[in-house]
Design goal:
single chain, membrane, 129 residues, FUN14, transmembrane helix, 5 helices, mainly alpha, transmembrane, elongated
Length: 129
């Protein structure tokens, strides 16, 4: 029964998108605008929740680490971040960028500040958006 419902939904979506392609430009623009607005609205609402959850979680973990409740191995975390940053940098530019090294070094020296900053940004975006 669930498989039939899923097939019906797939067929309806397929027919919908096939019909859009055959419609005139005005109808396509209107459907695109409405669906884009709905997607943006839903994404913003979901984004707020995700930003608040992730930002709050990051701050709670940092406070717990600072209070000795948990122990975070920042050397291991920094090594992983360095590897990922190096790979992304090589793919995007083909060479190392000096600003990335400065950011990574600052992050290593000032981990609590960096974690608080990132968490605060995520919460700020979540509340203000």
């Amino acid at each position: 029964m669930a498989a039939e419902a899923a097939d019906d939904a797939r067929n309806a979506i397929s027919r919908f998108f096939n019909n859009i392609g055959k419609s005139d430009a005005t109808k396509q623009v209107i459907i695109g605008a409405v669906s884009g607005f709905a997607t943006g609205f839903i994404s913003a609402k979901a984004g707020k929740t995700v930003a608040l959850s992730v930002g709050g979680g990051i701050i709670i973990l940092q406070v717990a680490n600072d209070q000795g409740i948990i122990k975070v191995n920042y050397n291991k975390v920094n090594r992983k971040i360095d590897k990922v940053a190096d790979k992304v940098e090589e793919v995007l530019t083909g060479r190392s960028a000096s600003w990335t090294d400065k950011v990574v070094n600052f992050t290593k020296r000032n981990t609590p500040f960096t974690v608080g900053f990132v968490g605060g940004v995520l919460i700020g975006v979540g509340i203000s958006a």
